[in-house]
Amino acid sequence: MRLSLWNHPTDTIYGMIARCESIVGTAEKLLGGEVYHYHSKMIMKDARVGGAWTWHQDYGYWYQNGVLAPLLTSVSVAVDRATRENGCLQVIRGSHELGRIEHALSGEQAGADPARVEQILKRLKLVHVEMEPGDAIFFHANLLHRSDQNRSDHPRWSMICVYNAARNDPYLESHHPRYTPLVKVPDAKIKEYGNKRFAAGTAAQWLAPDQDHSATKLSP
After folding, report:
1. Which of 25, 71, 97, 214 is 20 to 30 A from 180 via CA?
2. 95-108, pLDDT tens digit by residue?
3. Which residue in 143, 166, 158 sits closest to 82, CA to CA?
4. Domain 2-218 sits in which CATH superfamily?
């Protein structure tokens, strides 16, 4: 599995997605006020390769960054079709209401307390989030989620944009930004910048993360 991550939305197709009125406006409604871009990432699970994510809450990580409240939301946008076979997102419905769960390092990942997760799964429903290209799902920073390896012959790429409430500005400096004003753009900008990329290269290149020089490449 490959991962590219960036903190600030640039004037690229990625920035237009992260700044578009539909997505940012929904994040504002969910979080009850102004938001800013905390970070975005492209998760690239190629066919028959790639790792899996263990059960975790995103706030389990971000808590360590000086973020006082779980007033963050993520939106996952399917670039490719997401199915059980190719490792779609799995969530535990209603788990965000349980509060922050302790996380511990397991291998190369920090996961939620497995004994507690085992009990949670006895009471709450596990949902496989199968999606078509262009579908999007917003989820709370305390929602337990994971994903499996891609065992199919087809890639599964997804873009995730994360927003923090402006009033939840972290008190510590970290690898993700503190409050930075976010300028929204019309949704039409996504198509405009997508068309520019098509004109400049092949269809397969239009959403290639190595085209954005703000991205940090990781291969967990």
Report:
1. 97
2. 999 999 999 876 66
3. 158
4. q2cbj1_9rhob like domain (2.60.120.620)
